[in-house]
Amino acid sequence: MPSETYLELQDISKTYASKTVLHKTSISINQGEFVCCLGPSGCGKSTMLNSISGIITPSSGKVLLQGKDITFLPPEKRKCGVVFQSYALFPNLTVAQNIAYGLRGKEWNKKNILNRVFELLTLMNLESYEKKYPSNLSGGEQQRVALARALAPRPSLLLLDEPLAALDAKIRMRLGEELRRLQQQLGITTIMVTHDQQEALDLANRIIVMNQGQVEQVGTPEEIYQSPKTKFVAQFVGNINFIIPPNSQNKKEIAIRYEDVRLNYLTELRLQEEGTFVARIEEIRYLGNTIRVRLLLQDHITEIYADCIRSNRDLYTLNNLVSVNLPRASWQSWE
Predict the structure, then answer these.
(1) Beta bridge partners of 64
(2) Per residue in 151-210, pLDDT tens?
(3) In 3-state terms, what secondary structure has residue 286?
(4) Strands 80-83, 157-161: parallel, antiparallel or unpaired by DSSP?
(5) pLDDT at residue 335, rounded to an integer
(6) What's 127's DSSP letter?
(7) Whole-angstrom distance, CA of residue 30 vs CA of residue 288
(8) What residues form DSSP beta bridges with 293?
(9) What's residue 196's pLDDT?
(10) How far apart are CA 255 and CA 233, in angstroms?
(11) What is the chain's alpha carbon radius of gyration, rounded to the nearest angstrom?
């Protein structure tokens, strides 16, 4: 994991009229990191990204790149490569011309431009698409062209605003893997905005979880999933039950992830285990590698979900009475 601070946000905020869309936010991002900013629509994640790129100017606070204050620096002087969800390719330009579009200045003579375009066409496996126009490309191919164009000027920072959101699930997964491989290969510091929890868990070194203009938690994918600091993070990342267990003395709500709920055949021995209850299977959903079961616990009030492996198929039958174990080590709670 890279350890040298590369980008720093110091108490940045953004207010439009009387509405604050980004509250004071301070974050440090290390050189070479792949960071995903995760949260629901309207949570402020794109506002934060646009403050870094220079598309918008924060109402307060500072943006530092390698220790240099770039808060008021225009976007074209920040050396940021930006890819938006729409890709924003020029329809009247070929793939090669789109990639070359931002290559201007003394260092980019005709020979250097041709060499850089060829290098990126090869890197993105787009060699045979050089003379094609965007209208002749699939969504995944357009995404690769947009990424190549963003990388062409050799930016110091890559900013991605939901770049995979418009793609179908299989292509999104494959291109996400390609994006992660490419980022590691180039070693470029990358910040990606997404509302897809699985995408963030798969790709990121660290995840910034946001809600209502504020940062809820920053951590590795494992920390975010296994040790959420707030109820919102627990709900937003993964599937989790919030229940008051039957026979609870203090009536305190606990949280337990679907996959941590244990189902077994109903026996006297099982019922003697701590945290075990009788339940009836109310609903069964087949999810491919797992089975999701909705259960009604013995108090006839409390519902709980369990994600189970596909063995013991005869256990998963509607209206079956089963034992449900809620291992105390898997409980989470917040004051």
Answers:
(1) 8, 69
(2) 999 999 999 998 888 788 888 888 889 899 999 999 999 999 999 999 999 999 999 999
(3) strand
(4) parallel
(5) 65
(6) G
(7) 38
(8) 284, 306
(9) 92
(10) 12
(11) 24
Q: What is the pLDDT of residue 170?
A: 84
Residues of the chain with pLDDT below 50 are: 1-2
Contact of 209 with 233, CB cutoff 8 Å: yes
Rounded distance between C-alpha atoms, residue 108 and residue 13, angstroms: 37
| Segments in the chain forming alpha helices (H) | 45-53, 95-100, 110-123, 139-151, 169-186, 197-203, 221-226, 231-236, 268-271
pLDDT at position 3: 59
pTM: 0.90
How confident is the model at residue 331, as a pLDDT? 92
Residue of 30, 12, 48 lying closest to 210 (CA atoms): 48
CB contact at 8 A, 123 and 131: no
Give residue 244's identity as a one-letter amino acid code.
I
What letter would DSSP give residue 332? B
DSSP three-state, residue 60? strand
Domains of the chain: 5-236 (3.40.50.300), 240-330 (2.40.50.100)
**Token pair of 270, please?**
């099982």
Query: What is 297-329 written as a DSSP string?
Result: ETTSS-EEEEEE-SS-GGG--TT-EEEEE--GG
* Type of residue found at 200: A
Residue 103 φ then ψ, to 5°:
-90, 95
